[in-house]
Amino acid sequence: MALENDLGRDDIKKLVWRIAIPSMLAQFVSVLYSIVDRMYIGNIPDVGSVALAGAGVCGPVVTMVGSVAFWVGIGGSPLMSMKMGQGDMKTAKKILANSFLLLAVASVLLVALIYPFREPMLRYFGASDTTYPYANTYFSIYLTGTFFALMATGMNQFIISQGFAKTGMYSVIIGAVLNIVLDPVFIFALHMGVAGAAVATVLSQMASCAFVLSFLFGKKVPVKISFGGYDRKLIQRILLVGFTPFIIIAVDNVMIISMNSVLQTYGGPGEGDMLITCATIVQSFMLVITMPLGGITGGTQTILAFNYGAGQPDRVKKAQRFIFLLSAGYTTILFILAQTAGHIFVRLFTSDPALIAEAAKTIKIYTLAVIPLSIQYVIVDGFTGLGKVQLSLPLSFFRKLVYFLPLFLLPRFFGARATFYAEPISDIIAPVVSIFIYAVAMKRILKKPVIPNF
């Protein structure tokens, strides 16, 4: 059985490169799901700006639903990699089976719990009377594809964790390319507007899901999806390890929701909607930074987990050093682009000169500290990959706490636009603390490895 990558024996730098780059590209392409939707929505004749604000309100809620996929996927895949590193294929197979069950159950529960309350949720998250119809239309249709979205994203982690990084990338590209093709057909040719964008997204997720499941049920992977062997204790462990990335994504979206609410409160009905539209564009640019960055740090977790389980600490240290360099290099490039060419990105969403100027200025503010942010991602995802949630979770919460304080305080004294400075403040303070914790804890972790038994 030919593997794309031998996690335990291949040269570390080449291994990190071969896994990180496809994982990064996969996440970069997946950003197109939201960006292409928002780009086309923003250019709908007559109602584009209002419809884009509605999609912006809906975006964080959609991402919160998707965060459940990362909860299970990133919770189970490092554990499976550790067991593969130990040569315990029976337990690795059991972990995959339990993770598949978790995602299936979660997809049903999410729709049942969220659909009846979608109106108060969207209202609370910043939808005005003007933007609510668009947010409700998009979100209601999107929920019908919850099963496909969760399976495509969550199960893809188990493809990457077995060394098939390119295959994981292909699964995302299939959905993204289909979404790009279908969006103009449904939005403009069939005159479906916002509803068309949602339908295109659901169909694209179905295609990705079919690809992922067919691969994991096939003969190419060492560990295939199976049924049975369900274990409550193992499920708890998967949920515990995956809780850090889940809560990061969930709280990130609470941050966006809170920002929308603050902008609406301090900006007033007219300016508030304009600032939320601006924030939606800026958050789309941030996705271009953070999702590929998460692809680098999250995709390479499998290297850390496998070699940690195999008792090879030197390979873990070498891998983390190269992951640091790769992440810092990526964010440096994006920082330069944000400061010099942000207006070009904004023009994809709107032709309004005032909105272009406002959003381009905000992108410069929002991205002031993205290079330190890369350090935070590497440390937190590294601890998660090694199963050290007792370290990754507090570090994640600390960054959120640092964000929320200026988010609510700054606009009280300096107006609605000061809200945007909360991001760079948290992206400077949190990495400083994380570096200190990493320096103290990492030597001890690698000296005395603790691998959970199931």
Structure description:
It is a multi-pass membrane protein. It is built from 15 helices and no strands. The protein is mainly alpha-helical. The protein has one domain (12-447). Helix 9 runs antiparallel to helix 13.
Summarize the structure.
With 454 residues, this protein is mainly α.
Radius of gyration: 21 Å
Question: What percent of residues are in strands?
Answer: under 5%
Question: Structurally, how many domains make up the residues?
Answer: 1
Task: Note poorly predicted spans.
Answer: none
Distance between the termini: 27 Å
Largest sheet: none
Q: Based on CA inertia axes, which overall geometry fits?
A: globular
Order of helices and strands: HHHHHHHHHHHHHHH
Q: What's the number of extended β-strand segments?
A: 0
Classify the secondary structure makeup into a structural class: mainly alpha
Helix tally equals 15
Question: Could you estimate the helical fraction of the residues in percent?
Answer: over 70%
Family: Belongs to the multi antimicrobial extrusion (MATE) (TC 2.A.66.1) family. MepA subfamily.
Pfam families: MatE
Organism: Enterocloster hominis (ex Liu et al. 2021)
Main location: membrane
